[in-house]
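Pasting two entries for a bug report.
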Amino acid sequence: MFEALSGKLTGVFDRLRTRGRLSETDVLEALREVRLALLDADVALPVVRDFITKVRERAVGAEVIDSVSPGQQVVKIVNDVLVDALGGAGAVALNLNAASPVPILMVGLQGSGKTTTSGKLALRLLKRDRKKVLLASLDTQRPAAQLQLETLAKQAGVGSLPIIPGQTPLEIAARAMDTGRREVYDVVILDTAGRLSIDEALMAEVQAIRAATNPAETLLVVDAMTGQDAVNTAKAFNDALGVTGIVLTRMDGDARGGAALSMRAITGAPIKFSGSGEKLDALEEFHPERVAGRILGQGDVVGLVERAAELVDEEEAEKLARKMAKGTFDLEDFATQLKQLNKMGSIQSIIGMLPGAGKIQAALDASGKGAQLDPKMLKRQQAIISSMTRAERKNPDMIKASRKKRIAAGCGMTVQDVNRLLKQFDDMSTMMKRMTKMGQKGLMRQGLGALMPQGRRPF
């Protein structure tokens, strides 16, 4: 999401780092570029002004100008101010400190992803917090909205309030809370109706529901792709309802990132979750310091490790590691690895969590490999392997011209696609054999370059 902003800021700070000493003019010139980058990212003007003022106050002084690494010191100051702007260090937890069933009110405009987010939140509460959750749709405006939430509840494995046609949102809310008490639910998630734009009828309805249910959390769901409109929406809802938290959806989209940077400063409400993708498990806690690290090109290695620990089958991963070490890695193992990787999200999102993500992406684009990282690539590779016989997967060397044609026809791909997959597998196998041969000491001594196929270098 922050690719454009991250690229510009990384360029500014790279230039600062190359200078042995910095003058006050150097710092102010860099801050002008930072200001333009933030404005171009659709960050609200008052937020940009406040941000630059805070950085300038700390960066223009003897502490920075006379330090041993002034460029790095400026980056640290920008990082600290960025974390504050995003809400301070650490994620803000969901408030469940109330008598059961705890009501959570989901509000927002139509199309913001409110219903899907309700399903994601229910799954998260069930899996991570071991809560018994009831989903209730109060949306009588949008056709099939209640059926959509019922379907999401089944997918998540949580309870769903039975649909009774003709009831008003207030009546549904009262029935949901009553059902929650009688059937001993821990949490009741109330998914309210949205509108295409903010109007008096919408606000009056959600205000009445809020007054009747007294929710422990009033979560505003906003689409990060709408940029400054998302900030305006958040301000209007917060003024009318006093929202306790914000959920930013479509954080994996090609947006400029201004909404995330402006939201806390404009509303005062913390961003509690971010959503990326349509999968029900694609909802994450919002960690300001990690997001700041990604914006400044430092990555989010902690988040990547957490995602891997949560989604990757540890036993299967250890089994693959042992086979790699022995040099017995085959295409069936490669397919298993692809499945594990697919669970963690798109390759683009994984790259976005690595330090220097912008430079990695630029190197891929320059080499012409950037186009290979589309979200469907892993599924296509799995389809090719699935089209092979067991014998071919165990012994890839037997796959010659006629077999390649059959495999390509069987999965609807081309022979070139099959060749590309086999080449990737061959490169990985070669790298694993070299790693085993070199051992840990040799790898530390010669670095990653020694693992690459002849004539190639890592970016």
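Entry 2 (this is the one that rendered wrong in the viewer):
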Amino acid sequence: MLEQFLEAFQGIGILNLSWGNMAMWVIAFALLYLAIKKGVEPLLLVPIGFGIFAANFPFTGLMDEGGLFYIFYHYGIENELIPPLIFLGLGAMTDFGPVIANPKTFLLGAAAQLGVYVAFFMALLLGFSIPEAASIGIIGGADGPTTIYLTANLAPHLLGTTAVAAYSYMALVPIIIPPIARLLTTTKERAMVMEQMREVSKGERIIFPILASIVIILLVPKSAPLITMFMLGNLFTESGVVERLANVSREALINIVTIILGVGIGATMSAENFLNPKTIYIFILGVIAFAFAVAGGVLLAKFMNLFIKNKVNPLIGAAGVSAVPMAARVVQNMGREANRDNFLLMHAMGPNVAGVIGTAVAAGVFLSIIK
């Protein structure tokens, strides 16, 4: 009887609460504060923050095999189900019109992937393994679901850190993009007014996701889980005949899987996994990746202007990162600051949407080479 009492007493959580657990609570509360008080990516940071909080209680068994959070993580993230479902919802919310009307914006979205590869090689130099470096580099695409998908495949022990870094920097787009874009452009370039885009027909909008799937998946087969769902969601919307499916994809479904995704990610962030020097390196490399992504898009736009007749405002290259539509809105605001008659939003949406595709392709390339 005494032994049973002592065993029960030793199993009391408060007696086994470590300083590491409490440090993770501080991080959890910081994320909740940013989400609730500052409006920083609340749809993800609220469930992630609470997931971190709950996962750092001793003896809960939440992440033990068969536990609630284990089920969220194992069946939703580790088995690669939730990120493609999020891409389905994103596709249903995406307008490919600006890309179709101005195909050269695809190149700007591709150029913004420079940050991915710069961070990848820097991570290798810092001693990270190749799978870890790829998972860190993809943060530069500023695409949370793709970061989660790739990290879950290649370096699941870094999942919490890379996911928080990716979503944090997505929220910091209005702070990160302007200084880099201003440094690389002149006032005259930022004030450049672009020609109005042509009207895109319904037929073009329907054909595009099918044609894009053929080209991208044949070139990078490993990108198929993300690209197929992204294009299917877009086809739901553009076909106009399955509005119920389109509505469910961009509303109910994406909201449900976002909850499971956030909690599942937060649950991986135990003190043992998160409180180490690698975490600091990952956040620093994430900033570097993002900066080079912005610079890559802007510099390619300036280079293109040396050869093309219809010039592009170099600012739209900064929207090549996948933070849709925030990056495009930042570009719009910067263009209006330089010229009140400037309206760059729809022009910037071209490279912004292309950046989503570019990051998914980059993830597929890493998976093809590494896994």
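Dev reply: Rendering is fixed now. As a check, the viewer should reflect this: The two ends are 53 Å apart (CA to CA).
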